[in-house]
Amino acid sequence: HGHGYTADVTVRGAVDPETGFAIDLGLLDRVLSEEVRERFDHRNLNLDVPEFADGRLIPTGENLARLIAERVQA
Questions:
Q1: N or C: which end of the chain has fewer CB within 10 A?
Q2: Residue 34: pLDDT above 80?
């Protein structure tokens, strides 16, 4: 069976005086799409996500949140 999750992403940093943004929102959207949605949405975490496959990590909410944070921060 599947589960639905929601992840709140907070961005913090200095505001660029030219753009008025702390981060390029197009870049943030691409990162969230590639690193979160495409990687986890409608996937069997135990089989389809290498960090959880073959018993590597237990797919708890905490491990999932940590992995998402690491991927987005990178």
A1: N
A2: yes
